[in-house]
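Hi support team,

I'm filing this because I wasn't sure whether my run with nickel (II) ion finished correctly. The job status page said complete, but I'd like someone to confirm that the output block is well-formed before I use it downstream. Pasting the exact inputs I used:
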Amino acid sequence: MLLHVPNVLTPEQVAHCRARLEAADWVDGRVTAGYQGAVVKQNRQLPEGSAVAQELGNLVLAAIERHPMFISAALPARVYPPMFNRYEGEEHFGLHVDNSVRLIPGSGIKFRTDVSATLFFANPDEYDGGELQIEDTYGRHAVKLPAGDMIVYPSTSLHRVTPVTRGTRLASFFWIQSMVRDDAQRALLFELDTAIQRLNQTGADEQARTRLIGSYHNLLRMWAEV
Ligand code: NI
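And here is everything the job wrote out:
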């Protein structure tokens, strides 16, 4: 499931992050790429664990934890510390799949990447190119969202970032280990939860809603790993 999660950050938060990112020191993005990724990756990143990455990462984590659509769609068990990247002057990231298992920096804890997320800090009219292209069974989807918005997609997907030919593309990217590892099961739970929310808002029959909410939780209980 590809999902556009709007308004993760306020315009004020985006402006704050951009000011910090524009003043930061950046390194070659290949430091965190796996064997497959390093060959096709050409961009820059904030060093993992740097003070700016930690400060802005905490801001991003606090924002997504409060976002009901994100929680409902990703059903996070753990979120990888957000990282930040920058593309300009033809920089790009060729077609790849993200590493399936990562070590959380400094912890030794293994982390399975189920859901990938990209949060945009630049508006689409500020740069040319820099599309996130995600492939699934319906073909290729080109994603370029307003600053403050986020896309989440299954980490199993092949994807690329096309060359940035004008301006600068600034983004945060990270992974989620979900309580429900299977994308089809997560998509079904998200559909069910979205329908229940709508029934709640429209004051639909209470007994029927109670049974539906029970079914949602019993499916989650059947599938969740915690
Ligand atoms: Ni990737």
